[in-house]
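Let us work through a complete example step by step.
Step 1: write down the sequence.
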Amino acid sequence: MKSVYFALVLMLVPALLHADPLTPFEPGSTKVKLEDALPHYDRPENKTNEFYSEWWAFVFRLDDGYTAYVQFLISNMGPGDGKGFVKVEFGTPDGRKYKTTSEYSSSQWSWQKDQFLLQFGDNRLSGPLNNLKIQLENKELSAELVIENIAQPWKPGTAKAQYGKKKTRYYAFQYLVPVGKVSGTVKTKDNNKEHQIKGLIHSDHSVASIGPHEQAQTWARFRVLGEKTTLLVSDIRTPKVYGGAPIRQAVLFRNGKVVFESVDFNVSLSDPYVDPKKSGYQAPRLMEISGTTQKGNFRGAIKATKLTSSEDYLESSGAAARFIISKFAKPVMYYFDGIYAIEVEVDGKPQEFKGRGSYYYTVMNP
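Step 2: predict the structure and record it as tokens.
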């Protein structure tokens, strides 16, 4: 019995002493190219990979009391590979809420390789990357939307984090629309009414060839969207197998131009909100950041001021995804209103930016 015990110890020691290497986003941001934004589904590491997932997500900040969210998604999770989904949420000033998820088999969606054009059934995402168009058609509504970028598509440094020694295990990311203007028409089918909408929009494209339980232990994000000032911050803490190494990004836009950007900076998290209903779950409400770029130093603080909602991912997932993910992770996301203040050196002189934004914190496993 002792020999078995010692054999197990010898097997575990290397794993404890030597975490798998993690290569985070590295400095050297370049222009977002067409190949960055196109689907990665047909690549060998993803074609039959159960944990491959990819999305193009759009967050709206609309005028006149309208709300919206759109996501084009590809996933291999559950029965069948290459399933496509289009998730749409839309709210009107009078309180009506519309929420649909349309699902497509791998033969019911497609894309072009020489231009940006995704077709999921009757839903389409197309156009040059700085002037995208969204066409939606589902049982609840139809829509024709046009986006005009205020800030050009941007990616954080190399925009690809490698998990372990294999190049086929990665998380890649770009902001197709860091901030932009959106306008168009949404027609709701229950009352045959056309809604003219306009406002701001934000979009990101994410690709993962690894499962969410491997991608992050926790994930803090902060987003400020404005025509003049947009601030985007993200701090992923990886699981113990990767030594808890972080994957970080921060970028500040002023009038559509980059004021500072970094993928290598310090983050301190404190003042935890303790979930009264879920044992072991908590979300830090204070994020402090600091670092140095070629333009100079920066430092700032982000404070979550009010918890607006929380989401148990397993409860909101489909049965197949819930069955698989629950064996590895129990993710919960917390949504907060927040405020921020950040000081940045520009041409040797400090400039201060402050205001309000949205803070999100995800616990993948407590």
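Step 3: interpret the result. The first helix runs from residue 2 to 17.
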